[in-house]
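Ticket #4471: structure output looks truncated?

Reporter: J.K.
Steps to reproduce: submitted the chain below (446 residues) through the standard prediction queue, then opened the result file.
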Amino acid sequence: MSERMSARQAITAVATTFEEFEELEVAEGVFPANGPLAWSGYGTSRARATERTGEKESVVCGMATVEGRPCVLLSFEFGFLGGSLGQRTGDRLEAAYEMARERRLPLVSLIATGGSRMQEGMLALVQLQRVARQSALLREAGLPQIAVLRDPTTGGGWATLGAGADVILALPGAQIGFAGSRVRPADADPAAYGAEGQLAAGQVDAIVRKQDLRTVLAGWLTLLAGAGHSGPAPVPAPFGKSALPADGWEAVTRARSTERPRAEAYLDAYFPLRQALSGDRCGGVDPGMLCGFGLHEGIPYAYAAQTGTATTPAGYRTAARLIRLADRLGIPVLTLVDTPGAANDAAAERAGQGAAIADAFAALASARVPVTTLVIGEGGSGGALALTSPDHTWVTADSYFSVIAPELAAAILKRPESEVRSTASQLRLRPQDLVELGVARGVLGA
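Returned output as attached by the reporter:
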């Protein structure tokens, strides 16, 4: 179990400065002592919660800076009726979202909640619709939402404020799940309801220690709040110079070499600051697809980079998620292509490989921000093309791009193995061929 912080302690952990919103005025008689359902003892419970925590409601909202980066910050007080959402919680949350839109600021949520407040019945539950609506309006305004999941984050708070955020961070050991500990099946695997399990399932982006939260949040606010640059991402510099391959098979073998630079090396050289998004939010993570945001020469860019492995449905869904988020925030995208192709095993088919690739194609095709692509290794068929810009693509001297791998082309054409090399040349997959055919703008590192 993660360390449980109060709302104020959580604010202190992340904010350099904090100015709480003025108390919302509630007209006399609008909120009876025992709530809208006249729930016996509810007023007494609220009074005790206030005495115990010093808070009048389960959420504290205000203006904050995180290492100089401004944001609207809201923090849940779990000690106040389990951080539950009621009507007045909804009032405060709505005010916070409206303030973020009005001042065009990111919204950061420090969440610790057990869900909707039973003592207010359906009138508490419908607060989730208010939150969802405000979240949608913030997305429409092109403003980022970052959630920090504390212990516990369950019920509707997880299913709206938490899972609905653009970037989701979690404290180590935090309980996270739609089902709280008292309502889940008795034989349920507890690991599925923890921060580490949710990270493995692609539901959160990173687990961050309390002492690192401020630095990590400041990084995200720098990367996501600096939108508005419309120019394409510059093409990464090549690593050294190489002669162009003499034939198609040489291009393939060089691209497959373990000695050439991989995506990590390009990203490290390009971005002095970068932070990763992880997971497709559908239960999957592909370690062979690196996605996130970084600063290059002081300007934020998004990136999606293949690492040389066959890309799974989770990888394509994560890349599509990244591209759509970058497009909404007005941040140009850089893609690094390097895959033998899309994963084609039975597990990939069951996980919806075709639909995932189609979604990646659609995300890239509909992006309004410029997308820059560098092919750094293997360009294996549609599995590589799904991440490729149609008009801003470059290739390295140690890469190839092909409609199909030459071995598979030979097999389909019923050619013997001895003709694989000549088939590779017939496919015209070399870097210089791609430029001549108009597929790529130029070769880097030649």
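Triage note (M.O.): checked the attachment and the full token line is present. The first helix runs from residue 7 to 14.
Status: closed, working as intended.
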